[in-house]
Amino acid sequence: MRNIRVLLVDDHDGFINAAMRHFRKVEWLEIAGTAGNGLEAIERSEALRPDAILMDLAMPEMGGLQATRLIKAQDDPPYIVIASHFDDSEHRDHAMRAGADSFVSKLSYLQEVMPILERLAQGSAP
């Protein structure tokens, strides 16, 4: 299993801190950085070149959908997982049309995102 670098994007520090506490225990997972909105996510994606971005859907200044569209236009874009409390087919469809590779519910975040990251680390796209 290869190591993968992840950028965490969410406007709630508590959510980022909780995710980081869990992810730091995973030996093959490295937190490349964090961002608090879509504008920061775009800049940090270009600068840090993570393997994956775990992106909140709704954020101030620029949300996850617009940021995903712009990041996916970069050369060799990362795998993007959109996370949201709004877990319904409409939000999932919007995320996929924006170019997201996966969508997970924040209500079962770790249970849904860990298998995705494990498959990335094993070299197979989820």
From TrEMBL:
Respond yes or no to whether keyword Metal-binding is given for this record.
no
Q: Does the keyword NAD apply?
A: no
Q: Which UniProt keywords apply?
A: DNA-binding, Phosphoprotein
Gene3D superfamilies documented for this protein? 3.40.50.2300
- Domain of life (superkingdom): Bacteria
User: Cross-referenced SMART domains, in alphabetical order?
Assistant: REC
Q: Cross-referenced Pfam families, in alphabetical order?
A: Response_reg
Q: Which residues carry this modification: 4-aspartylphosphate?
A: D56
Response regulatory domain mapped to chain residues: 5-121
Protein name per Swiss-Prot or TrEMBL: Two-component system response regulator
The organism of origin for this protein: Pseudoxanthomonas daejeonensis
